[in-house]
Structure prediction request, 65 residues.
Amino acid sequence: MAVYLCEVCGMSLGDITCGTCGKTLEHDVIVTDEGEEISVSKCSEGHGMIKSPMCCGQDMKRIDD
Prediction:
């Protein structure tokens, strides 16, 4: 199970699911035109993607449980 962890306060978040199909979103990285890597969570069925979660003003780190 993918777990996201806030390195500031220690809050964690388990698997995130797609509201359309109910499948667990998959971790991925996209690269901007400027070469910056951005962590995202994507629906494997093509229903879209979101920027990975934030807490305490920073991206939460993805860890595997």
Remarks:
- The beta strands are 2-5, 12-13, 26-31, 37-42, 49-51, 54-55, 58-59, 61-64.
